[in-house]
């Protein structure tokens, strides 16, 4: 049984046990605090890796992007389009989620149904000069210690760009050191994730014991919200392709449909790559040099639904905690979601869920204790994440081909 299935089974088992405990007050009073302690300890194990892992990932990611940009005009243009696409996807996702939650708000007390206490919302953050100055990491060590993700991410970007300007051999040694840090932290993360079924079972038991079936209803709403964000971003690809490549929406949709079917059924962009290559070579008519360079790069680093879905998760968790999202918090979350999603390529899905969403939540002042329960139901949103990524990867490759002088 895969880790994802074991986590899902632990969630269901925990909810069932918690629901059963509601019938036995004495047992619930004794077992719920113990389960809560186990769950919090497991979440703490994940938290210790977030800050150093994100910093190391961004530094190595910036160096990799610089190498790609130096590879030639096609690669540089593709990288620019990727950055624009990720930023736009996060913006669209944020607007969709906020619109959906205004129509279908989170029920009052929903956070209690998941076994967590209501969080006092942070003070509203307006976009002012002082707010913009807070992006400058005057004390990166303090930012790291206090989990201030926006200045930490800004410093990591500056550090990564600066590293690419020093002697090539020294740069390679420095980036190699950060890659070793990343690999070491990944070992710790895998150790913690090996215990994920235990942690999720404990947290789900608390949720079931305190709220019963209401916890399941909250998880269903979460799935609908995140899936809606992914679908909105995926649908946006079609008119963008039409405008920038001058290929009609219907021909594009027919050409990519086989790859989408594989993506939907396998939840893997890599497994969809052969069908994507066939679509690019056949009905889309993308030239071989562009196809061979851009498509593998897109599959590797252009996960358009990553920034979108991760931002959606953070916004939904904020709504659960009753945290009002000001324009400043919205901008901070969108910025971090975009940068971290580009930096965390190649990570396993369970790892990337925490590594990419945790920093977004922290940047917006949103607690992350709920993320393990949401990971347990990530299977459904992951289908639509993969579908959107495959659609955007083919769209990007087509756009780069047409923008580089391919005939219509």
Automatic annotation (TrEMBL):
GO CC terms: plasma membrane
Subcellular localization(s) per the UniProt record: Cell membrane
Keywords: Cell membrane, Membrane, Transmembrane, Transmembrane helix, Transport
Transport listed as a keyword: yes
GO MF, any single term: symporter activity
Topology in the lipid bilayer: Multi-pass membrane protein
Name of the protein in question: Dicarboxylate/amino acid:cation symporter
